[in-house]
Model the fold of this input.
Amino acid sequence: MTRLDQPTVALSDDVRMPLLGFGTWQATGEQGYEAVLAALDAGYRHIDTATMYGNEAEVGRAVRESGLRREDVFVTTKLPPDRVGRERETIEQSLRALGLDQVDLWLIHWPPSAGSESVPVWRELLAARDAGLTRAVGVSNYDTTRLDELTEATGEAPAVNQIKWSPSLYDRQRHREHRDRGIVLEGYSPFKSTDLADPVLTRIAAAHDVSPAQVVLRWHVDHEIVVIPKSVTPDRIRANADIFSFSLTAEEMRDIDALGR
Ligand SMILES: NC(=O)c1ccc[n+]([C@@H]2O[C@H](COP(=O)([O-])OP(=O)(O)OC[C@H]3O[C@@H](n4cnc5c(N)ncnc54)[C@H](OP(=O)(O)O)[C@@H]3O)[C@@H](O)[C@H]2O)c1
Done:
């Protein structure tokens, strides 16, 4: 399977991001390395890491040893809040740890605690992209007002906002605010805020002969929301990637959306 076999979303004319990615928070050391290798073997072509996760070396080693071409794997990392003012140094450290020349996406992990620092940090991300250290730049955990502040100051909107998202957190208005601004919504922690025994999810899962977890992931993809489930369990890693052989009806999508109201 190559990246082109999976649904992607455009971040710019020449950068496409797979809608399904693999989360790596708390997947560290040898276990993290094995999990990323298993994920790439299972068909994921997008890996989400961060300086804060302390696993960039293992993620990079797995990507390099996977046998896949570098251009077929989308890699995201993130700038932690305590590196404000040391942005360039931080992405250079990330690239060294990953053993890569460039990442595909670099995110501000959290808005800087001093609101006045947000725009200068964003300018540093844009500069890193212009220098070729990352192909695209975005943010994480930003509300819409803060997104607009960056765009108004620089004329460039973040390509992506990575925020907590799941059926129970579904917010049509917030999703629309991202779409209207051309900002891709990337959801994190799809399972942590989901009751996988919810009768709506179990009914829909049974109708398609899949698991409620697979329904949750497919629901994101059908909304064109990027989703990055994490697992260190080989069976789950594979099952979470196996979401393209069924699709949800419009009515099922509405029933799942309704869990967020
Ligand atoms: N930007 C941010 O601030 C931020 C914050 C949080 C997370 N993230 C990113 O988003 C990724 C995903 O979020 P997350 O790790 O918080 O949570 P998650 O992916 O919602 O949940 C991970 C948990 O669910 C379990 N799990 C995985 N597949 C399952 C399945 N099919 N059925 C039942 N349980 C399953 C995992 O267990 P096992 O591992 O034991 O299999 C693990 O305990 C992170 O890894 C990270 O890359 C970003």
The beta strands are 8-10, 16-18, 22-23, 46-48, 74-79, 103-108, 134-140, 160-164, 184-188, 226-227. The chain has ten helices and ten strands.
